[in-house]
Amino acid sequence: MGEIKVSPDYNWFRSTVPLKKIIVDDDDSKVWSLYDAGPRSIRCPLIFLPPVSGTADVFFQQILALTGWGYRVIALQYPVYWDHLEFCDGFRKLLDHLQLDKVHLFGASLGGFLAQKFAEYTHKSPRVQSLILCNAFSDTSIFNQTWTANSFWLMPAFMLKKIVLGNFASGPVDPEMADGIDFMVDRLESLGQSELASRLTLNCQNSYVEPHKIRDVPVTIMDVFDQSALSTEAKEEMYKLYPNARRAHLKTGGNFPYLCRSAEVNLYIQIHLLQFHGTRYAAIDPSMVSAEELEVQKISLHTSSEQEEQ
To answer: Looking at CB atoms within 10 Å, which of 40, 58, 77, 296 has the fewest?
Structure first.
């Protein structure tokens, strides 16, 4: 594998932002790994949930940029959980441990599905202030693998990796996307059999989102127009499920736009979080928000809204 072009930033990130490990379950083997960066005074941070192949550090470009602008962000890596209820219960315990009452969630692919399930799980006592759903889905049946979901735990790691790699772009891509894919392949190699098997089980276990339980949660749907693991039908289903959601469309970016189109993704994240500035749910240090910056973001917000209407 060639040298990953983002490695200087990545190496700097790894040397400056410590990886924390936290256990919140009775089972000591269930360890949450996370990067928590930015001002601790912020009580409603943005939390990133990775895809099947991802680790907490796949969001390093968002962490570097957003903390530089005054946001508190947390990027997670899941322990081994075998069903959605178990995951939601563990995630709730983690938020309790971190003393976070409500949070904003950015979920990529499986992370987006789990973010929706957690918002649904906590709807009677809401813990999710808003959702950014990147290349996400609302029904696991789109992968046509619900019948194999209960057998992933039996498969060796090389077979599980082959299943995941089958969803990676195989045609010609631009250099940034090629670097992003290389990076994700590298991250995939770092995952053990049980980590991969449990994530694929969560990804394919028969389940769907009940939108009426989270209809009051502000949502931004972020997706790409080029090749990704999501079908057009799956994207259309998300639009139907969240008719009032803001849409953040990227012309290109493939499965991992947060790596290869990080500037656009970071802008869309800022636009989404702008609506909470000046409230107790702001994810940014108030002293970092200048009037000029707010004006620039409002113009960006207005421009994106006009593009949606066209």
So the answer is: 40
CB-based contact 109:141 (threshold 8 Å): no
Q: What is the pTM of this model?
A: 0.91
| The pairing of beta strand 46-49 with beta strand 73-77 | parallel
176-226: pLDDT as tens digits: 888 998 999 999 999 999 999 999 999 999 999 999 999 899 999 999 887
Closest CA to 49 of 103, 1, 110, 126: 110
Output Rg (C-alpha) for the chain, integer angstroms: 18
Strand partners, 103: 128
Q: Do 284 and 71 touch, CB atoms closer than 8 A?
A: yes
The angle that helices 84-97 and 110-121 make with each other, rounded to 10 degrees, is 80
